[in-house]
Design brief:
Helix content is about 40%, strand content about 20%. The protein is of the alpha/beta class. It has one domain: Rossmann fold (3-Layer(aba) Sandwich), CATH 3.40.50.9100. Helix 4 links the parallel strand 3 and strand 4. Helix 2 packs parallel to helix 5 and helix 3 runs parallel beside helix 4. The longest helix is centred in the last third of the chain and has 17 residues. The chain is globular. It binds ligand CA2. The site of ligand CA2 has 16 residues, from loops.
Amino acid sequence: MTSTIFVLNGPNLNMLGRREPGIYGGKSLEEIGEECRTAGHEAGLVVDFRQSNHEGILVDWVQEAADAAEGIIINPGAYSHTSVALHDAIRAAGRPAIEVHLSNIFSREPFRHHSHISAVAVGVICGLGPTGYILAIAALKQQIAARG
Ligand code: CA2
């Protein structure tokens, strides 16, 4: 049976490709979403790719994933560094979650070095640009299969 995964993106990631290409690369979020859908299809997964600038909407989607998805890939954007609500939602969802960042958050400002999400993720990928999402899809497929 085909599994669905949610790929969730947080605040300002809708700006990708329009500003700060030196940090985040030149691809738009729409292009990354299309690449994720293609990689998911090749892996036998349906990718539901979403973005919101609102913390509560991201929490709603993580809660939805508990029933509607087998796993979650999330780039929480700046909420990584602030959101206990997203931490709690991911913990409660009971689905494997992989945290992705386009940039290497550890080579940037100190306030980006801690993520509230990492402790409730099965793994974290950062610094590899959009490739990180594709690697996360392959890894999440393994996680889902291992859970039966
Ligand atoms: O590296 C990442 O993927 C981040 O999650 C991106 C967040 C940042 O707050 C995290 O520390 C690391 C910011 C996304 C903002 O994206 C923009 C894209 C273009 C122009 C402006 C912002």
